[in-house]
Amino acid sequence: MDGIKVDPGELRASAGVARALGAELDGPVGVALGASAAGAGRLAGWAVAQGLGRLADGWAAPLAAVRDRLADTAANLEANAEGYLRTDRAIADAWKAPVAR
């Protein structure tokens, strides 16, 4: 595995991107699902109303799962960055420690 380098700063930056994507997703998703549900209510009695209601209901859980997955990804990236830093510090400290003879 020669040449592999992990940069904790890059892991943290990627975590920030994942977190930002999840936050950006909330607004448009909320608007789209709300509009579909509202449209279904306003069109009661029309055939399209039921379809709009099913659309909102059907997409709510998968889109929430995407948001949750992005949050989990961000948390895992942060945890990995911290793990690499902790390991690097432990190795550096081990090299600094006096050798028992």
SSE arrangement:
Layout (H helix, E strand, L loop, with lengths): L7 H35 L4 H50 L5
Helix pairs in contact: 1-2
Question: What would you note in describing this structure?
Answer:
By secondary structure, this protein is mostly helical. The chain has one domain. Helix 1 runs antiparallel to helix 2. The protein is rod-shaped.
| SS elements, strand count | 0
Classify the beta-strand content into a percent band. under 5%
Structural class: mainly alpha
What level of helicity do the residues show? over 70%
* Count of runs of 4 or more consecutive helical residues: 2
Task: Enumerate the spans where pLDDT stays under 50 for 5 or more consecutive residues.
Answer: none
Radius of gyration: 24 Å
Q: Which properties best describe this structure?
A:
rod-shaped; 101 residues; mainly alpha
Quick take:
With 101 residues, this protein is mainly α. It contains two helices and no strands.
